[in-house]
Specification:
single chain; 408 residues; alpha/beta; TIM Barrel; eight-stranded parallel β-barrel; globular; binds flavin mononucleotide
Length: 408
């Protein structure tokens, strides 16, 4: 216990001199009024909580700054969020999907923050080769959530130490529902062992200089879900991203925005909503319906990385609706931009190929012979894919991305 307090104090000291998000929070301690209420615009009003619960939370997750001021972890969470300029439009974690060049493409088109793909904490902690193959970032790749899966607090912490100076949150994957997560006992299968989840979050929150976030799924019962997010918050989690489906629900099922709204109303740290975000009207509707602080999208970005800049696929433009026009960007030009980013920030060919399929899927449906040639190509190169895009364009089929007409 004593060791952990000392370590925490030490990490606060280093945060004061580092450039990471906590320094702003520490500097802001000047603005505490004598009663400990915040006077700066940086902090949100206290709400949702009774005085007793507030006190409990205060003492369960506080430390003493150099000004001998007790700071609640939820205030720290908000200060950090505000320092990051409160990103609302976020690229969700995607295994072999949200790697550096794709994140940078999405950022160019409106994404305000992004998650890495899930990284295995044990492999990451133990192997330089795994780290360099699976994680890369650059100065402009911020704000960044680095996501890990794992079930051992010490190993998770070792992995997190490797990235804490390169990211804005270390995220724990508590949502993966796949068979491999069941056999490895991580992701959404940890929901069966809440004490273990608590120990993972506490371990990171008390030792890292960056905040911890969690990406979760829902329990079938709302009460269970609300107890779950409370446990995460009380364990020191600074942000929760909620995929609004249970562990057993698949993406065909509509995400439960009502449950996300209840979560948002029951805790005092930033909450992100995930599920059913296909275009910017979904973003606006979700923010309005749930009151969350931001939204994340995954699958729709694979098809249309320009989603957050207001571009939408023809699938979401109703025939005869003259409120939309060709936005002047199509998936061919997005593929070219993506490839240029891959030339700058190299990634595995398998990832590049998956993105090319994601973005050019519709063109391939119309021109299966081009797709077949692409499938058969043994020596893929950037030149090959650039010329494949030219070949598709030469055939004259257009799949534009649309934008809303601006009213005169
Ligand atoms: C290709 C792909 C890979 C994914 N990989 C991850 C992952 O590594 N970690 C994670 O937490 N979720 C992962 N997800 C889930 C998404 O982050 C997201 O929660 C889910 O797809 C629902 O959002 P959507 O409706 O916008 O697709 C993945 C989803 C897709 C489509």
């Amino acid at each position: 216990m004593f060791n952990s307090i000392i370590k925490r104090l030490f990490s606060c000291q280093s945060a004061m001199t580092s450039t990471n998000g906590l320094s702003a929070f520490l500097i802001q301690t000047h603005s505490l009024s004598p009663k400990g209420r915040m006077t700066s615009g940086l902090y949100p009003p206290f709400h949702h909580r009774s005085g007793d619960a507030l006190l409990k939370a205060t003492f369960s997750a506080t430390y003493t700054s150099s000004y001998s001021t007790k700071i609640r972890s939820e205030d720290r969470a908000w200060a950090h969020w505000r320092k990051l300029k409160q990103p609302k439009l976020i690229v969700a974690p995607m295994y072999e999907g949200s790697e550096l060049p794709f994140r940078m493409l999405c950022r160019k088109y409106g994404a305000e923050a992004a998650y890495t793909p899930m990284l295995h904490s044990r492999s990451f902690a133990e192997g330089m080769k795994y780290r360099s193959k699976n994680f890369s970032t650059c100065k402009e790749d911020r704000p960044l959530f680095v996501q890990f899966c794992g079930n051992d607090p010490d190993i998770l912490l070792e992995a997190a130490y490797q990235v804490e100076s390169d990211c804005d949150y270390v995220d724990i994957n508590l949502g993966c529902p796949q068979r491999i997560a069941r056999s490895g006992n991580y992701g959404a299968f940890l929901m069966d062992d809440l004490p273990l989840i608590k120990s993972l979050v506490t371990k990171l929150a008390t030792n890292l200089t960056v905040p911890v976030s969690c990406k979760i799924r829902l329990f079938p019962s709302l009460d269970d879900t609300l107890n779950y997010v409370k446990l995460l918050e009380d364990s020191g989690c600074s942000l929760i991203a909620v995929h609004g489906r249970t562990r057993d629900e698949r993406t065909k099922q509509r995400a439960n925005w009502d449950a996300i709204k209840s979560i948002k109303n029951s805790i005092n740290i930033p909450v992100l909503a995930n599920g059913n975000i296909r275009h910017m009207d979904d973003v606006a509707n979700c923010l309005e319906a749930t009151g969350v602080d931001g939204v994340m999208s995954a699958e729709s970005l694979l098809d249309n990385p320009a989603l957050f800049a207001g571009f939408r696929s023809g699938d979401w433009v109703v025939d005869g609706d003259d409120g939309f026009e060709n936005g002047g960007v199509d998936r061919g030009s997005l593929v070219v931009e993506y490839l240029k980013l891959c030339e700058k920030y190299p990634v595995k060919w398998g990832i590049i190929v998956a993105h090319v399929y994601g973005m050019l899927g519709k063109w391939f449906e119309v021109h299966p012979d081009v797709r077949d040639d692409f499938n058969k190509e043994k020596e893929l190169s950037f030149e090959y894919i650039y010329s494949m895009v030219d070949r598709l364009r030469a055939r004259g089929v257009q799949f534009p991305l649309y934008v809303k007409k601006t009213r005169g």
